[in-house]
Amino acid sequence: MKILLHIFIIFIFLGCVKEPSIPLGIENLEKTFLSIDNTIDRNESAEFAYKILEYTSSLKYKYDLEYPPLYHNFLVNSGLKNRGLCWHFANDMLIFILDQKYKSFDYYIVGASIDDYWDEHNAIVVTCKGCSYKQGIILDAWRNSGNLYYSTVEDDYEYKWIQRGQKINSKFNIRY
Q1: How far, in Å, CA of 62 to CA of 141, rounded?
Q2: Residue 29 burial (CB < 10 Å; 0-12/13-18/19+)?
Q3: CA spacing 20 to 30 A to 80: which of 10, 113, 132, 133?
Q4: Which residues pair with 126 in a beta bridge?
């Protein structure tokens, strides 16, 4: 019966999710970070791009992800998988990034469709020191099943992001 239920859920969600895009590479993400503001350190930007792409790729395996993401959510919410919801990605990426102690960047948790059970989504935004989240870059590893999606906040046409809480400067003030 469980197998039939899984097959049914897969067919429901396959029509709702587009094919994941492949990250455009370290150099492109580095340039995207540098485009935020001229105060971003080039070496930090390059290191950050490399490490975050590598880390989000490792989360795919850590979470034992299934495609599409909504199906994976179903498995987590049913207790069949432990992690892999959007806020798990955001939280784990943020903790990883904070451990790197970059001096050029500030971080925010953002959400879309807050309190809508089916559509709520969370991600992180990276900005330059002292910049608003609206000037930042969305880092979202959930929507493409572990392949990092990134764009400026204003260029992300799939979600309308709002800031959740204050700027994050330590692991101790991560709040949703």
Answers
A1: 13
A2: buried
A3: 113
A4: 107, 137
In contact, 49 and 126? CB cutoff 8 Å: no
Nearest to 88 by CA among 62, 114, 107, 112: 62
Nearest to 52 by CA among 85, 98, 86, 112: 98
Q: Stretch 3-22: mean pLDDT, rounded?
A: 45
Report the percentage of the chain scoring pLDDT > 70. Answer: 82
User: Is 97 inside any structural domain?
Assistant: yes
Is 53:148 a contact under the CB 8 Å cutoff? yes
If one counts every other C-beta atom within 10 angstroms of the C-beta of residue 101, the result is 7
Cis peptide before 68 (omega within 30 of 0): yes
13 occurs within a structural domain: no
Residue at 74 is within a domain: no
Q: Are 141 and 147 in contact, with CB atoms under 8 Å apart?
A: yes
Q: Work out the pLDDT band at 2, boundaries 50, 70, 90.
A: low
State how far the Cα of 19 lies from the Cα of 29, in Å rounded to an integer. 20
For residue 130, is it within any domain? yes
Q: What is the pLDDT of residues 100-124, one digit of tens each?
A: 999 999 999 999 999 988 899 999 9
d(CA 57, CA 52): 8
The count of structural domains within the chain is 1
